[in-house]
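Hi all, a correction to my earlier message: I attached the wrong file for F-box domain-containing protein. Here's the right sequence:
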Amino acid sequence: MANKEKKTQKKQNDPLEARRMKRVKLERKKAKAAKELGPDRFSRLPFELLANVLSFTGSGDVLSVARCSRHLCGFLVDFPSCNFIWRQARANTVFPISDPLPNLTESAYASILFDPKVCEQCGTVARKPFSMFSLRLWVCDTGSCLYDWVNQKGYKVPFAAPVQAFPWIVAEMISARAKNNSSTYGFFCRKSDHDRIMREFETASARGVTRTDFIKMHEFDSHKASLIRKKNEEIDLWRKLRIGKEHSIVYRNTTVTREFVTDNNWDFWALLRTPTFRDFYIMKKRSLEEMSRTEIDPLLEVIRKEMEELACREKMRTERDEREGRLRQVEKLYARLQTQGSYPTLPAFSVFKELGVVAMMLNNRKKLASDAKKEMASEGFLSLLTDNISVWIDNQQRTLLKLVGQSNYTHKNDKQPHPLTFCTARFICMKCKDRAAKQFKPISLSFFDLCKHKCADSSKTSSRGWSITNFALDQKAVNVSKALLEMLNLKEEDAQIPELPVNTNILCESCEGMVVMNTLSGLHEHCQRHENMIFHLHADVLTHSLNVGLRDELMSRKKSAEKMRKDKTLGCRHCLKPPATPNLTLEEQEPVHDNLVSDRGTQKAFDFDGMRSHLKTRHGVEFIADEDFFRIPVYQ
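and the right structure:
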């Protein structure tokens, strides 16, 4: 018992043996399941009845039946007593097939004649390959596979009668042409067979065997080669007759089909796509039988119903393709308007395609994509589009004015700035603010950004991605904007500043270290980290310059960015020593240098991934920004 357990443990430790045991268990499980399921109904037919049915079919049909199940394969292939079925099938085939060679079984012979073959040269499956039975050669009938095989695996016999060399060398006439129109012609045999026979002859010659004696020693091989050549000629003749018959049947059946199509006013190719007629047409072609109207007419009602269903599907597909074409034209128009800048405020594309004039053109099923392109370039369409955009902007402004506390405001003078263009009018998308932060996209939005905002996880064509109800007032950005205006002694209506004044830096006191930013967008994004951000102004005399856009540059997919991310040239601003006293006014500013030495010792250099990890673990900064790090000068 102990020895048996040791052997089992040894087998389990051996990977190859364990794999074999697993395969055996799986095969046993499959066999048990098949036994419980039992044979199919076709396999339950009595032997006499099955043989009688198959006696009216051809070799190709019997071959297909033999591959339906394991039971039928064993019945038709493994039992020699079933050879009479194959012989009868060969006789029933159009252009009866001659007997196979003694070394071939009936099923293997049928497989050679009817199965698709794998090209010996390129490995693709060809249903009608160039085949040569005597050379065991199957290559693609098109292309230069035959030419390549002749040059790589063929041997050209240097005389017209190849049997004069050694009678058992099988050589055949081959004419091949390459894609560059170069060709070759002559008797060819397999190079491997020729080389093997020549090695045998050299070995026999070394032992004193003459050429005549060597040929006598291979009389059986010579007789076998002569049978193979004769069988190759029979197969070639049979294949040529069958191909000619197939072409004539296809021509005849196509003629009858076109007459049937003309009588019913249908399309020829559409008729061949209907299930009933397609199967009928293919069955006639494979069995090499001519088609007649007396066979088609009983199927007329079924075919007519299928043609109506096909026409309905074709119409739906055409309408869908045309709508996609119109949608592409709308996308091009939207991109063109963005590039030209003729509209200062454009809605998001999901809203743009729902505007009245655009939606009317987009949903018009009768309008072709080419006609839609011409219509969208007309002055009347652009005029209506301008009106639609103006109405849409007014509706959104009325809703947003309620959020900023000016619900009764009416904009009468276009020369005066609109309250929604103030730097204190900041909004946030409640639907995707968390996802936007993870994707390093802006969270605080101006009115112009709000109109074209697309949620971080929404598709381009989603109609549910944009809604004015998704936005709320960004109170944090509003508070820091008001505080900044107070420091700069400016009013809201006088300050439509996209950027800060020159030489104005903002130092965040809510963060440890020297976290400095010099852009208004950076301030609006940074304030999202704190509940109540405290900051002050000081002059731009920093030792380490602020690299605006450095984070986006390092996170891009360029190869140069991938290399830059690995360089340890980044320092942490949170680890720098803050100034002793803050500067509250621009007049009282004093030069303040951010030193490389902090309370934690000498500043450490990081690569980009290391910097992100350091900021998250040491300072609790979840999403890195430009103000969190700086590039250490090379000379330091």
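Sorry for the mix-up. The CA atoms of residues 9 and 285 lie 60 Å apart.
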